[in-house]
Specification:
By secondary structure, the protein is mostly helical. About 45% of the residues lie in helices and about 0% in strands. The protein has a single domain (about 1-234), classed as Cytochrome Bc1 Complex, Chain D, domain 2 (Orthogonal Bundle), CATH 1.10.760.10. The structure holds heme C. This is Sulfur oxidation c-type cytochrome SoxX.
């Protein structure tokens, strides 16, 4: 449990509701069936945070995640509209005012898994603060069909721009969804990349990723390139 907290880093913020639910089922056979109070759980989480970045723990004190955890991701209509309103108010445009950035840069951010890990200072796998953060979208989505693997918690984004076009409304939606997924789905499992304390990505990075999903030249919207090995099978 605690190891998982250290490893999953920012994904944990998105999955906190799941984690809290799991924490109620104690895994040690002699303790099986015993339940752990929320206070005990938070204490254990706090003790495992050997990081010097105060933003790391703040992720657990977020009012939106608190509501989602308490309601097991089933907020009442009133709670849901409070969340949507609060999350929407976090969204900011890049400095140049453009929702679409550079898709080639976006490809790098989408693939990157750097940033947001919760680890020991000086831990071998700790994220070096001088490197820009990545988004690790492949943990949950198929995106570029040439990328070797992907998770499937979220829907496939392959051909996203081909299927939806590049109209103003879809460009704005895509930017805002990546910036703050919970401004559309109150207890979305997708991280709020641009929002919150110690946000993971800059507005410019979100715009680059928007372009990666939508630009007609992006590999997302083009057929998979055959590898040499695949071509040899013909
Ligand atoms: C922890 C898993 C997770 C990660 C990481 C993640 N997403 Fe998602 N994403 C989801 C889930 C689950 C949904 C569907 C629920 C929702 O809409 O919030 C979703 C929905 C979306 C949608 C809306 C799709 C539609 O049909 O309108 C877009 C766009 C999207 N994600 C883009 C991204 C991008 C780009 C990244 C990386 C910057 C990313 N996601 C990272 C889980 C994730």
């Amino acid at each position: 449990m605690i190891n998982q907290i250290r490893i999953s880093g920012y994904l944990l913020a998105a999955c906190a509701s799941l984690t809290v639910t799991m924490a109620h089922a104690v895994d040690d056979s002699k303790d099986r069936g015993k339940s752990v109070s929320d206070a005990e759980f938070m204490q254990a989480v706090k003790e495992s945070f050997l990081t010097e970045n105060p933003n790391d723990f703040k992720r657990f004190q977020d009012p939106t995640l608190t509501t989602c955890n308490q309601t097991q991701d089933q907020p009442s209509p009133k709670q849901a509209s409070e969340i949507l309103q609060r999350e929407r108010s976090s969204i900011q445009l890049p400095k140049n005012g453009q929702y679409m950035g550079d898709w080639k840069q976006g490809k790098i951010w989408v693939e990157g898994a750097h940033g947001g890990r919760i680890g020991f200072p000086g831990f071998a796998d700790a994220d070096h603060p001088s490197k820009p953060n990545g988004a690790n979208c492949y943990a949950c989505h198929a995106v570029d069909p040439n990328f070797p693997q992907n998770g499937n918690m979220g829907p496939s984004l392959t051909n996203y721009g081909k299927l939806r076009g590049q109209g103003a409304a879809i460009v704005k939606y895509t930017y805002e969804k990546i910036y703050n997924a919970k401004s559309f789905v109150p207890c979305s499992l997708m991280p709020r990349y641009g929002a919150g304390e110690g946000h993971l990505l800059t507005a410019e990075q979100v715009a680059d990723i928007t372009a990666f999903l939508l630009h007609p030249d992006s590999p997302v919207n083009n057929p998979k390139q055959e590898t040499v090995a695949e071509a040899a099978h013909h």
